[in-house]
Amino acid sequence: MVLLLIGCGNDLAAPQLSLDQGEETNVWQAAKLGQVEPLKAALAKGIDLNVLNQDGWAPLHLAVVGNQVAAVEWLLKNGVRINAETAGSRSALDIALTPGFMENEGQRNVREEIVKLLRQHGGQRGSACCGKTG
Questions:
Q1: Contacts of 73 (CB under 8 A, 6+ apart)
Q2: pLDDT at residue 116, as a whole number
Q3: Pseudo-torsion of CA 59, 66, 75, 26, nearest 10°?
Q4: Poorest-confidence range of 20-24, 32-36, 106-110?
Q5: Distance, CA of 96 to CA of 70 (rounded, Å)
Q6: Burial 58-83 (b: 16+ CB within 10 A, else e)
Q7: How many angstroms from the chain centroid is the CA of residue 23?
């Protein structure tokens, strides 16, 4: 587990803020649902917005999965690690480039917007990606 945390860019020597279950859930759910206000409140409390949930996903990853452009943009502007990887070694860009299940045209357009935004902020493919072409 320690190697996994280090591999995902976590600084184990840094002081860690303890989140209660409600705050953890709010950060990840807010990102996936595109609710920026709870993310702002978490940041104001000093909560690390790069923290991985029990499935090994950070709020940025979940905002991408949820096709939440505003949340992705806000997270990027507020210092999240754009190339942090999930427990499965996938970056936010990897996730954005993965076709969605039963995705409609509108969702594809949003996903393309997210890909563009991630690339503009230096998004790269994760270590699980063959060839790592960004």
A1: 117
A2: 97
A3: -50
A4: 20-24
A5: 14
A6: bbbbbbbbbbbbebbbbbbeeebbbb
A7: 16
Report the alpha-carbon distance of residue 52 to residue 5 in Å, rounded: 9
Residue 51's Cβ-side half-sphere holds a number of Cα atoms within 13 Å equal to 22
Q: Which tokens hold the place of 5?
A: 């945390």
Q: List % helix, strand, coil for the chain (3-state, nearest 5).
A: 50, 0, 50
Cα separation of 126 and 38, whole Å? Answer: 28
Cβ atoms of 58 and 51 within 8 Å: the answer is yes
CB neighbourhood size of 23 (10 A): 16
CA distance 3 to 46: 25
**51: nearest Cα among 78, 11, 95, 22:** 11
Average pLDDT of the chain is: 81
Report pLDDT digits (tens) over 92-104: 999 999 887 667 8
